[in-house]
Amino acid sequence: MIAVGELAQMGSMCAWEGCTVTFERDMPPDWNWLLAFWAPGSVLNIAEIGPGQWLCDCCLCGKHSRMLDSKFKRLKPAPEN
Ligand SMILES: [Zn+2]
After folding, report:
1. What is residue 5's predicted lDDT score, i.e. its pLDDT?
2. Is residue 78 in some structural domain?
3. Ligand 1 mean position to 78 CA, how many Å?
4. What range does the domain containing 11 cover?
């Protein structure tokens, strides 16, 4: 576990357990922000999400972005008419 104050001095660190890759200033192109929250329906403005509704607000390095993405279900393209 990393203390919040310690993390703030490192820049941004990948949130994947065991990964210590960090970046400072601009996010590298293969990294991604990961936001997860509860809402009763679709949200158009994330500023309206209450503080108690967030599951996570973090980033993943390129390797772990791809690992997470590989776990998502894939949708078939809609048939063309
Ligand atoms: Zn990582």
Report:
1. 72
2. no
3. 33
4. 4-38+49-68
Burial class, 19, CB count within 10 angstroms (exposed 0-12 / middle 13-18 / buried 19+): middle
- Furthest-apart CA atoms within the chain: distance in Å: 56
Please tell me the distance between residue 27's alpha carbon and the centre of ligand 1 in angstroms. 13
Q: How many structural domains are present in the chain?
A: 1
pLDDT digits 0-9 by tens, 8-49: 677 899 999 999 999 999 999 999 999 999 999 999 999 999
Cα–Cα dist 44/38, whole Å: 13
Q: How far is the CA of 48 from the centre of ligand 1 (A)?
A: 29
Ion ligand 1, residues whose Cβ is below 5 A away: 14, 16, 19, 21, 61, 64
The average pLDDT across 36-63 equals 94
Distance 8 CA to ligand 1 centre (A): 17
